[in-house]
Write a structure and sequence with these properties.
The complex is a heterotrimer of chains A (327), B (633) and C (337). Chain B is of the alpha+beta class and 633 residues long. Chain B has 16 helices and 21 strands. The longest helix of chain B is centred in the N-terminal third of the chain and has 28 residues. Classes of the chains: A mainly alpha (327), B alpha+beta (633), C alpha/beta (337).
């Protein structure tokens, strides 16, 4: 397992480097705009543009620029997302600082949503799978189809309009002043400010997971070992929950890891609609303005999180399925 | 030229009276003080009952350079400076044009400046005894602090993205910026409360340039560093901003400038991307300030959110104001039609213009008759309707927004058509005189009129607007080849003469400050040509430049001289008149554009806001005038 | 004769489907004594597995129409309530299946799976159950049973897995063990070991065994009685001698002749039974075997032959007269052997 982990870690580094290179390439080749020109505002002189270019390091040859960004990946104090290079073109704030500020929000959003969709999706999926073709099953699958088809931005706006603007049951969008860091984010969660965002995210995923669990469970219940379990005289409950689910839920582990990884990279639609200052919102703001250091920072963070999530999921799978062994 | 001047001067008197009456009626009809029958206030003489409370606002996006005054080139930040954080030599009252909002007044200056005989040196006296905000509450604002601000403005590491070019006109500024001099010879402090500014050519609007945030005084630090408290903060002085206005960032007193700059902690009130919290500056002396209201006790601004939801919050009263959003069209309608909401919507001219520009080097627009024909044919009403209707602005009949010519040209529209919908007959008459219409039937028959390269913006409503234009121009024999581009790309292409575009269909322009030079110079003189900004029509280009850019047409009109003339005049009626004539010359002789809309700023305030004023300088609500005495937490 | 342990009387299991009524088991009867091994032989689709699953109560009565009687220790299992059936299943009657790799849960340790069975039916501690599981593994000749009990099924070889399944099935000392194709998925060399094991354990536990298979070779050595099934019915019933040396049904003849022989000339072709097994939805009228029977005659496509005793408990379901059967058998079938 140790050697496997080392191999995976090296592979992760390779993946991140490729992602960073592609991101860099996109920014260099994109015709959308010279960040220097964007930064200087409209009335300007050639000297100003040149000055901005120098300030952003854009006057250096491409490979030098890329190398400067690459150095920022090394998780060594002084090099990690170094402020010389990783400084937002858009609003002159260090990338590190901005990311650190936003991680708690995205973290709470992702984890809370995951808890909800699991608590919702898995029981519904089990109920459906166990009572196939019953009224409960059909209702659950209708819910699943609706849930999977609803676009998040529509759902989010609808929920906000209904539950806050009209019914005044839940707080409005946004995090109030002064709620900073993990403490602030948790406090905001305690005040219910994450409920609508969680629900928007969770409904879609819950539907998806319900369908998946249902399908897996039906398949699993057709396996031979279920027949054996029944032949042993075990109660049907035990057969379903100890034997059937065990097989049905292993794909859920894989999906969950990937989904949470993706969310931690920033659920940008949800964050934008609900005014949550997380990583996703940062991405949405920095990309159109060609704010390269910020985009690079966000992208690499996202790539890193997803790569780690992948790794965690694969390792977890080894614990869940004893037939899988890594060397 | 002389005749025209006299003629216009005669009409001017009548016009002024008419304009004042009309503006007065307009002011009464729309957008007056917000709120119910609250006490009316006068600028500079705030009403005590309106004081107090917490103003809660939201911004969709953060400011552009973390409040660094030498970098921020953004009207929203300028409002924060003017209303709240930074006092400058001269400043504005934070009111609309018709209430004198375009007029400039002494702020930190003790009075109007005196000008030398040759018009090159301006002397300002500084009000004595004014102190900075904590942590510099023991430091008096002195003339040397203005010199320091100018030195930072010239510093290439510090002024990234700013507008230092406005100060090139100060003697020695460029040399200092280039590192060829150790001081800026043109700005000195002969004594602690006297500031002398010397320019290289006579410039009338020096006071306007010293009403901008970049010119605000920077306090010294205890170690006597050249840049004072900004030393070591070339990149991010805004996080360490020492205020001089009625407000400061919350927690400013915790900043410690005696520590090494790398170890200093930022003012906690401003968290980039999250919040801006301003509290009252204990050092502020209201008696010394005739300009500001400073009603709220505390200003809390949340950054980020969904546009529509934020306006819903304003309607609910959970939020008082959205700084940089766009009020959804349905809400504008609601507020305008609902009697309970009518006095909470404010519509003012934002001093920005939308226009379509011609490239005078690119056929067929090298022929002035074609340009005039397009002006006649243009359906300005239709374009406004596509943008959202009358609430979005006034039909523009000329170029300079009203505050820049004090309303002299308020009724001036040389290409006026019934209902501003265009007049194809008049257009054809004009086209018939063009060299591209060989048979004089009013329809262009030269190949240059086909597939006219047009740069446009791909976001709504521009695609529909250019479609309308295509329709309008068809009867004239002009066909368009419209490129729908991302906004930044469009501006780049419009600016770059090498693109050989003929029309630029979606630009806009707003003033930097209320003086005509902010329109006149960058838009129509040589100084605004590529690679500077923003002369898209190539007015004033030299034959060498035209050849270099690959044009067959080498002769284009120039207005550089007129611009210089007006720039040299002192602020006042004569200067306004000069800009008015400049505008008329452009519209009738040069015809570089079809102007179509003077933008409105539309905003709504919550029911908690008991007073409202529009700051014409920044083009948005004057934050310190938004009174919320009932908002106590 | 002692009271039969298990008595199946006229068991019918019909599945209504969208395509029609599938008559998987259509009137099967047999009885089983303690210490006996019954072999149920037939092709795929003959109903041999379904009949045993029904005995175990593993056929969902909501999905099938079950009629007949299954007597076990004085009770008709078809009428016993579900909860009570569960106490019988696994403890008194247990079953092992064809493919031990898929029949054991891949995610649980083998010892756990055996102990689970024990814990379901006995009120003892987990440790005791586990110890018993280890003991059972030892009894089925698995070396290092303690280590093995903590391993997963995929760590066992094919033969060992089947032994483990047997251990699981026998862990509660059942009266009846049903083995559904226990050796089909195993190597030939391992097959014999497993069958011997079953024999030994049968005596040790004094159980009765039903072996279901399609392989006549398997039943030859290990069964006392044999029931040949075709299309959901019993075609012939008898003890091993009867079936092998004195078969009385054309289907049985066909089965016996189709066994490849090692001692014959390689040139000779195999002798399969002509035709294909019938659809259980559209069972041929009369004798279900008649479309494939070389000896069919007049009544065969009209009247369903009954399983009639011929000699002792040797019975056959065929319209041919005993004389005719014996004649054909001796001349053609046995001669070819």
């Amino acid at each position: 397992m140790g050697r496997y982990l080392i191999r995976r870690a090296l592979f992760m580094v390779l993946v991140i480097m490729i992602v960073s290179f592609l991101t860099f390439l996109i920014f260099v080749k994109l015709p959308a705009g010279d960040p220097a020109r964007r930064a200087v505002g409209r009335t300007t002189t050639p000297e100003q543009i040149e000055n901005a270019r120098v300030a952003f390091g854009l006057d250096k040859p491409l490979y030098v620029q890329y190398w400067r960004f690459l150095k920022g990946f090394i998780p060594y104090p002084g090099l990690w997302l170094t402020e010389d290079v990783y400084y937002s073109y858009g609003n002159f704030v260090p990338v590190k600082e901005e990311l650190a500020r936003r991680i708690p929000i995205t973290g709470i959003l992702a984890i809370g949503a995951a808890v909800i969709w699991l608590s919702l999706g898995i029981p519904i999926g089990i109920l459906s799978g166990v009572r196939r073709r019953s009224v409960a099953d059909r209702a659950a699958m209708i819910f699943a189809i609706i849930g999977v088809s609803m676009p998040i931005f529509w759902l989010a706006q609808l929920l906000l309009y209904a539950f806050w603007f009209k019914l005044e049951l839940l707080p409005s969008s946004g995090i109030p002043i002064g709620y900073n860091g993990w403490g602030g984010a948790l406090r905001a969660a305690a005040e219910g400010r994450f409920i609508l965002p969680w629900v928007s995210l969770a409904l879609v995923s819950a539907a998806f997971y319900a369908r998946m669990v249902r399908g897996n469970l039906i398949e699993t219940m057709n396996e031979d070992y279920i027949r054996t379990a029944r032949a042993k005289g075990l109660s049907e409950r035990r057969v379903i929950y100890k034997h059937g689910l065990r097989g049905a839920l292993t794909p859920v582990v894989t999906m969950l890891g990937l989904d949470v990884g993706l969310l931690l990279g920033g659920a940008f639609i949800t964050e934008t609609v609900f005014g949550l200052p997380g990583i996703g919102q940062l991405a949405v703001q920095s990309i159109p303005t060609n704010d390269f250091p910020m985009v690079m920072g966000v992208t690499i963070l996202g790539a890193f999180i997803i790569a780690v999530a992948n790794l965690v999921v694969d390792v977890a799978y080894a614990f869940v399925d004893p037939r899988v062994r890594y060397t | 030229m002389g005749n025209m001047r006299r003629g216009v001067a005669l009409k001017r008197a009548l016009r002024v009276i008419a304009v004042v009456t009309v503006l007065g009626l307009i002011a009464a009809a729309c957008g007056d003080d917000g709120g119910d029958a609250g006490p009316t206030d006068e600028p500079g003489q705030p009403t005590a009952e309106l004081e107090g409370g917490t103003l809660s606002m939201a911004m969709l996006a953060d400011v552009t350079a973390a409040f660094d005054p030498q970098k921020e080139y953004y009207s929203v930040t300028w409002e924060y400076y003017r209303c709240c954080l930074l006092r400058t030599l001269m400043s504005y009252e934070g009111v609309p044009t018709d209430e004198g909002g375009a007029q400039i007044h002494p702020d930190l200056a003790a009075g109007e400046p005196t000008q030398s005989e040759d018009g090159l040196t301006w002397t300002y006296q500084i009000k004595p005894g004014l102190m900075y905000a904590p942590p510099k509450e023991d430091t008096e604002i002195t003339a040397a602090d203005f010199v320091r601000a100018m030195e930072r403005t010239a510093n290439p590491k510090a002024n990234v993205g700013g507008y230092s070019f406005y100060y090139s006109v100060i003697e020695g500024f460029d040399d200092f910026a280039a590192g060829d001099a150790t001081e800026i010879s043109g700005i000195t402090a002969p004594d602690t409360h006297t500031l002398e500014i010397t320019t290289t050519t006579p410039i009338g609007d020096v006071s306007y340039r010293f009403a901008m945030g970049t010119s605000a005084p920077i306090p010294p630090d205890d170690e006597g560093e050249r840049l004072g408290v900004a030393e070591g903060h070339d990149r991010n002085y805004g996080r360490f901003l020492v205020a001089s206005g009625p407000y400061m960032f919350e927690g400013s007193e915790t900043m410690d400038f005696s520590a090494d700059p790398k170890d200093q902690t930022e003012a906690p009130g401003y968290v980039p991307g999250r919040q801006i919290v301003l509290v009252e500056n204990p050092s502020y002396d209201p008696a010394s300030d005739e300009l500001r209201d400073h009603y709220p006790e505390r200003i809390e601004v949340r950054i980020g959110g969904d546009n529509d939801d934020l306006y819903n919050q304003v309607q609910q009263g959970a939020l008082d104001f959205v700084v940089d959003g766009a009020v959804p069209a349905e809400k504008i309608r609601d507020y305008q039609t609902n009697p309970d909401l009518q006095d909470r919507i404010n519509i003012y001219a934002s001093d920005a213009i939308r226009y379509v520009s011609f490239n005078l080097g690119e056929p067929p627009f090298d022929d002035v008759h074609v340009r005039k024909a397009v002006n006649w044919a243009f359906d300005k009403q239709g374009w406004r309707q596509l943008r959202g209707g009358p609430s979005t602005g006034e039909i523009a009949g000329h170029i300079f927004v009203n505050s820049l010519q004090d309303g002299i040209l308020a009724d001036y529209d040389p290409y006026q058509t019934p209902n501003a919908s265009g007049d194809i007959e008049k257009a054809k008459e004009e086209m018939a005189q063009s060299k591209y219409d060989t048979d004089g039937d009013g329809v262009c028959d030269a190949p240059e009129c086909q597939n006219i390269l047009t740069m446009s913006d791909r976001e709504d409503p521009y695609p529909e607007q250019t479609a309308l234009l295509t329709q309008n121009l068809e009867p004239l024999g002009l066909t368009l080849d419209v490129k729908q581009l991302e906004r930044g790309t469009m501006y780049n292409k419009c600016l770059d003469p090498n693109s050989h575009h003929a029309l630029c269909a979606a630009p806009g322009w707003g003033k930097d400050y209320a003086d005509g030079i902010t329109f006149g110079e960058p838009l129509f003189t040589t100084a605004g040509l590529y690679e500077s900004c923003c002369n898209y029509s190539l007015v004033g280009a030299t034959p060498e430049q035209m050849t270099e850019w690959g044009y067959d047409v080498t002769e284009v009109p120039s207005v550089d001289e007129m611009n210089e003339e007006c720039a040299a005049l002192e602020p006042g009626d004569e200067r306004f008149q000069c800009w008015a004539e400049y505008d008329q010359h452009l519209m009738e002789e040069v015809v570089p554009w079809v102007p179509y809309l003077f933008d409105n700023s539309v905003d709504i305030i919550s029911a908690n806001v008991e007073n409202y004023s529009f700051d014409q300088f920044a083009g948005l609500a004057a934050f310190d005038s938004l009174a919320v005495p009932g908002n106590t937490t | 004769m002692a009271q039969p342990l298990l008595e199946v009387k006229d068991l019918k299991v019909h599945f209504p489907t969208d395509d029609g009524l599938v008559k998987a088991v259509d009137g099967v009867s047999y009885s089983l004594q303690a210490g006996e091994t019954l072999g149920i032989v037939g092709e795929s689709g003959s109903g041999k597995s379904v009949s045993s699953l029904t005995v175990m109560g593993l056929i969902n009565p909501k999905q099938a129409r079950i009629s007949g009687e299954v007597f076990f220790q004085g009770q008709d299992l078809l009428k016993v309530p579900k909860d009570e059936m569960r106490t019988i299943r696994g403890a008194k009657i247990s079953m092992i299946f064809q493919d031990p790799m898929t029949s054991l849960h891949p995610f649980y340790k083998v010892g756990y799976q055996i102990a689970e069975s024990i814990l379901e039916h006995q009120d003892i501690s987990k440790q005791e159950a586990f110890d018993q599981a280890v003991e059972m593994l030892a009894r089925v000749n698995i070396p290092h049973p303690k280590d093995r009990a903590s391993q997963y099924p995929h760590e066992f070889s094919g033969g060992m897995r089947q032994r483990a399944m047997i251990a699981m099935a026998l862990s509660l000392n059942p009266d009846v063990l049903i083995a559904d194709e226990p050796t089909t998925a195993l190597d030939v060399t391992v097959q014999a070991q497993i069958l011997d094991l079953i024999d030994r354990l049968k005596s040790e536990f004094n159980a009765a065994v039903i072996i279901i298979t399609h392989d006549l070779g398997v039943v030859a050595e290990h069964c006392d009685d044999i029931m040949v099934m075709y299309a959901g019915k019993a075609a012939e019933f008898g003890d091993t001698d009867d079936i092998y040396y004195k078969p009385l049904h054309p289907y049985t003849w066909g089965l016996l002749s189709s066994i490849p022989r090692l001692d014959e000339d390689k040139q000779e072709r195999l002798n399969p039974i002509r035709g294909l097994p019938p659809s259980l939805i559209q069972v041929p009228p009369g004798c279900a075997f008649h479309p494939r029977c070389p000896y069919k005659f007049d009544p065969c496509d009209r009247d369903v032959p009954e399983l009639l005793p011929v000699d002792g408990h040797h019975a056959a379901a065929c319209h041919l007269s005993l004389a005719d059967k014996e004649r054909i058998r001796d001349q053609e079938v046995l001669a070819r052997r």
